[in-house]
Amino acid sequence: MPASPVPLSPLPTPLNVGLAGLGTVGAGVIRLLAANADLVAARAGRPIRVVAVSARDRQRTRGVDLSGFAWEDDATRLAARADVDLVVELVGGADGPALTLARATLGAGKPLVTANKAMLAHHGLELASLAEGTGTALRFEAAVAGGIPVIKGLREGAAANRLSRVYGILNGTCNYILSRMAAEGLEFADVLADAQAQGFAEADPGFDIDGVDAAHKLTLLSALAFGTPPDLARVQVEGIRHVRLADVRQAEALGYEIRLVGLSERVGDALAERVAPCLVPRAHPLASVTGPLNAVVAEGDFVGRLLFVGAGAGAGPTASAVVADLIAIARGESGPAFSTAAAALVPLPVASAAERVGRYYLRLRVADRPGVLADLTAILRDAGVSIESLNQPASGADGTALVVMVTHECAETAARAAVVRMAELSAVAEPPLIMPLLPTEG
Ligand SMILES: NC(=O)c1ccc[n+]([C@@H]2O[C@H](COP(=O)([O-])OP(=O)(O)OC[C@H]3O[C@@H](n4cnc5c(N)ncnc54)[C@H](OP(=O)(O)O)[C@@H]3O)[C@@H](O)[C@H]2O)c1
What we know:
The chain is α/β, with parallel strands linked by helices. 34% of the residues lie in helices and 23% in strands. It has a 6-stranded parallel sheet, with helices on both faces. A 6-stranded mixed sheet has the order 8-10-9-7-11-12. The chain has a 4-stranded antiparallel sheet with strand order 15-16-14-18, with helices on one face. α4 (96-107) links the parallel β4 (86-89) and β5 (112-114). It is elongated, with a radius of gyration of 25 Å. NADP nicotinamide-adenine-dinucleotide phosphate is lined by residues 20-26, 54-57, 60, 75, 90-92, 97, 115-117, 142, 146, 313-314, 318.
């Protein structure tokens, strides 16, 4: 009797991807999918393949082979293609073509994977609602902290916890600048110019150094951690432009490192969201995060403190996060984009500065003459702020002196009001700098 033929198991259906944006991250995704195709297919349960792409300039050399992909001049058309199951948006920008494509994709009921924190910070609630309305997925692992799986960590790993705060180093450019200032004794402007020359910092670095990029990411962490819709207007944002080498050295002498920290925390029934340069105690894990690395800390009522550290940007790490989202979708993993269903995201009251209590670092450059210190300390006394330490490290040849103070715990409003009054003194030679101290336990 002839042997009956062995039935062939049907080949799994590939997940067909339309990819918009072939820059740093887009080209990285193509490279990763080519290099790890078998491994990705094994883990996803089906092959994941790019079928169509879009960018601005079709002639540009990108170091990746695009010959097997259909080309669309208009990225929005990727969403309508019958051979595209899912769209990856790596164009960037809060509005414009990225948003048009995101709306078209989710509106068509197709999953969207994006690394675009600016778009999600501005339109995250609308896009999450749209995805839920059409029963599809919106995923953005690469939008916060590059390669670090912090979105998955909060959305899934820590989903059972009531979180009290989530904070971290969310911008690699700022961390790189602050780390080099400390390591090489350089001023902010010199490191920035060098970073731009080497391509580490954008020609227009404002989004990074003024804290806006970190604020975009913080809104997404807040949504995941606290069930509040992403809302940039709620975030108090300060960047690192005004941090001097002298501040870095004074912080070191006090046992701290300066880091740009994005912090979102419950204050009673309210939520405080802030991006600011902070003094981080040397014993805190964020103090040892140097160079372009990112790190996120989340504190949950059952899990305790979680720490995520890794590369916050770059083609490889960011592509790793994008493809992780593709694998999750290929596996059929679902659930709301921001962990809580879009309709159930509720804006929490914004914590007032009066409710925010902490210790603060104050730096002033003042005329080097008798009585000035007494005037400064009188202002703090009148504001109800007591001084933990006061240092006058050096007198300049220009007749001014640096004064550095650390306050005891006080209301932020009191410390800031005192700084405003100090700035009005004729003896104060330049705008003072105020920076919060991150608590050791925080
Ligand atoms: N770079 C990182 O390390 C990193 C990390 C995390 C998240 N992200 C996010 O990832 C996204 C992409 O960043 P990137 O660094 O890869 O940017 P990029 O290098 O500037 O690349 C942007 C790409 O978008 C294309 N593009 C621009 N306008 C377009 C349009 N109207 N239609 C179709 N394509 C268009 C550009 O085309 P041409 O090449 O033809 O000009 C380019 O290929 C952004 O949202 C960014 O915030 C980046």
